[in-house]
Write a structure and sequence with these properties.
- The chain is built from no helices and 11 strands.
- With about 110 residues, it is mostly beta strands.
- Strands 2, 4, 5, 6, 9, 10 and 11 form a 7-stranded mixed sheet that branches. A 4-stranded antiparallel sheet has the order 1-3-8-7, with no helix packed on it.
C-alpha cells in the first residue's frame, strides 16, 4: 500500500510563503492524479488543488492566484507553492494520490 509523505508545513505570518512537498514512495505521479486537501481545526476537509496525469492543474477559488501545484516526475513528488498566505489558510494539509492514498498531513499555521 502506498502512503504519501508530506513535508514543508510550518508557521508564517500573513503574506508569507511556504512550499509543501508530497512524495509517494513506490508510486509514480506519472500514472495517477494527485491532489492537496486541507482541514482547518474543527471544520470539514476541503479540496485545495489537483494535478492530472497530463499536468493540468486545478485550484479551489479560495487559493486561485496564490497557490501553485507542480510535480517532479523523477522524484515522484508534487509540490504546493503557497504565496500571500492568509490566516484562513491555517489547516492540516494532506496529499492524496490516485484518489485513494492519503498522507498523514503537515500543519500550516498563518498568523495575522
Amino acid at each position: 500500500q502506498v502512503q504519501p509523505v508530506e513535508s514543508g508545513g510550518g508557521s508564517v505570518q500573513a503574506g508569507g510563503s511556504l512550499r509543501l512537498s508530497c512524495t509517494a514512495p513506490g508510486f509514480t505521479s506519472k500514472t495517477c492524479g494527485m491532489a492537496w486537501y486541507r482541514q482547518p481545526a474543527g471544520k470539514q476537509r476541503e479540496w485545495v488543488s489537483g494535478i492530472t496525469i497530463d499536468d493540468r492543474t486545478l485550484y479551489a477559488d479560495s487559493v486561485k492566484g496564490r497557490f501553485t501545484m507542480s510535480k517532479d516526475k523523477v522524484r515522484d513528488t508534487v509540490y504546493l507553492q503557497m504565496n500571500s498566505l492568509k490566516p484562513e489558510d491555517t489547516a492540516m494539509y494532506s496529499c492524496r494520490a490516485c484518489g485513494t492514498y492519503w498522507g498523514q498531513g503537515t500543519q500550516v499555521t498563518v498568523s495575522s
